[in-house]
Each structure stands twice: as C-alpha cells, then as structure tokens.
Amino acid sequence: MKGINSKSDTHVDNRNAELEETNETLRKEITKRRFKERELKNSYKQLRALTKHLESVREEERTKISREVHDELGQSLTALKIDLGLLKARLDEKFDKTLTEPLNEIIRKMSALIDSNIQSVRRIAMELRPGILDDLGTIGAIEWQAQDFEKLTGIKCIFVSELECMELEREYATAVFRIFQETLTNVARHSGATTVKVKLKQYRNKYKLEVIDNGKGISTVDISAPQSLGLLGIRERALLFGGDVDIVGKSGKGTKVSIFIPSRRKTND
User: Fold this and answer.
1) pLDDT by residue (tens digit) across 27-66?
2) How far apart, in whole angstroms, are the C-alpha atoms of residue 216 and residue 202?
3) DSSP conformation letters of the chain
4) Which among 34, 35, 127, 141 has most CB atoms closer than 10 A?
5) Residue 269: pLDDT above 50?
6) What's the pLDDT tens digit per position in 68-82?
7) Chain mean pLDDT for the chain
8) Which pTM was predicted?
9) For residue 59, what are the CA distances in angstroms to 39, 56, 66, 161, 171?
C-alpha cells in the first residue's frame, strides 16, 4: 500500500512540475505579447504624431505658396493688364483707328487671356488655402465650398446649419474643411448623385457634420477597402484632432458620411 502511495505521490509531483513549467512558458509568452502590444501602440502613437506634424507643415507650406501665387503672380498679371490698357489708349490717341484696329484686336485677345489667367491664379490660391476660412470662419467656408461644388459639378448641394459659430483652433478648422472637401470630391467621383445635403449641428459635446447624397450608395467592402485612400485620409485627418467619422451606404439610396468634431481641442492633443 505504501509503495502504491509513493508512486502516486511521485506522479502528482511530476504532473505539478509539468503544469508549473507550462504556466511559466505561458507567463513568458503573455509578457512577450504585452511588450509587443506596447511597442505596437507606441509606434502607432509616434506615427500619428508624425502625420500630424507633416500635415501641419504641409498646411503652412500651402498657405505660403497660396500667398505668393496670389500676391506676386496676381499683381504682375494685373499690372500687365493695366499696361495693355495704357498702350491701347496711346495707340488710339496717336494713330488713325483704321491703322490701329489690327493691333487693338491683338490687345483685346491678350487682355482676355490675362483675365483668364487672373481667374486661374485666384482659383489655385483659393484651393491651396481658402482665404474665406480666415475671413468668415469654418461655417462660412463650408457654405462657400458647398456653393462652389454645385457650380463646378452641377450636383445640387443644400447646406443647413443649426450653429452660428464653431469654436475651433485654426489647424483643426483647416482639417475639418479639408475633410469636407475630400468628402465632396468622393461624391463627385464615385456616387453618381444628383443631390447632396450638408447638415451642421451640435451633437452632445461635439459638432456633427453630415454629408448625405442620393447616389448609388457605397458598399461595406468599399468602406473598409485598403485602396479607398480618400476615405482613409478622411479618417486619419479626423483622428488627428480627436474626431471620428462614420460612413454608411445603402445600395441605390445613397451614402451618409457623419463627421464628429470635438467642440474644443483636447488638452492632451
């Protein structure tokens, strides 16, 4: 009986030792995985901080180029147009009209070309850094963009705001505006919509910007597809200021993009 008990004790001891060894292996594996998870989270955090910095640098550069294009090139074209006007007046004053008409025709064509280039310069400067964002604030800029979108695409764009102002720091206001631009670009490129409704409202402690189109409706697969870089960019921009984006599509009924924007910048941003 003693021998049997002794054997049983040995078996239990061996089993306990095996279990202890297995537990130790599992503990090491869990520790290793937690370390990897922390590393991954830190890398993601650093990557987001880098993206935020690059975005800020890019906006500053765009603002600088916009100012130079508008001031330098725009003013040069305006001066050229004034000089052409003076030249035409001098020709009309000094020479007979029948002799100057061919030259005046050339001057008119040059003047029309200059007008076209001035409009192009304004458009490029506006796309680089919408001055209206500084002049009228975020809501005014969104309304302007909606009207410009309708004018350029022919897609009816209805903007309704329940807010009179949005308290956002400049870089966050720019990010919201860029998200709105990208959302409208996606509507124009992919939706096949004829109407877009844009709603701006307060949602709890956030602002909520909704862009709803009556197009074909984005599929669930397209929403999360890696090649949907425009949507990825929208989400990343929103995350940079602590915001969030929700995209829902219904086949044949359209797509709704909801952008949630913190009312104020978080202190740990």
Assistant:
1) 999 999 999 998 888 887 888 778 777 877 887 888 888 8
2) 28
3) -HHHHHHHHHHHHHHHHHHHHHHHHHHHHHHHHHHHHHHHHHHHHHHHHHHHHHHHHHHHHHHHHHHHIIIIIHHHHHHHHHHHHHHHHHHHHHS-HHHHHHHHHHHHHHHHHHHHHHHHHHHHHHHHS-HHHHHTHHHHHHHHHHHHHHHHH--EEEEEES-S-----HHHHHHHHHHHHHHHHHIIIII--SEEEEEEEEETTEEEEEEEE-SS---HHHHH-TT-HHHHHHHHHHHHTT-EEEEEEETTTEEEEEEEEESS--TT-
4) 141
5) no
6) 888 888 889 999 999
7) 86
8) 0.66
9) 30, 5, 10, 26, 8
Q: Which two tokens stand for residue 193?
A: 């919509």
Kindly state the greatest CA–CA separation across the chain.
Answer: 138
Smallest Cα–Cα separation from 210: which of 171, 249, 159, 174?
159
- Tracing tokens 């200021």 back to the chain, one arrives at 241
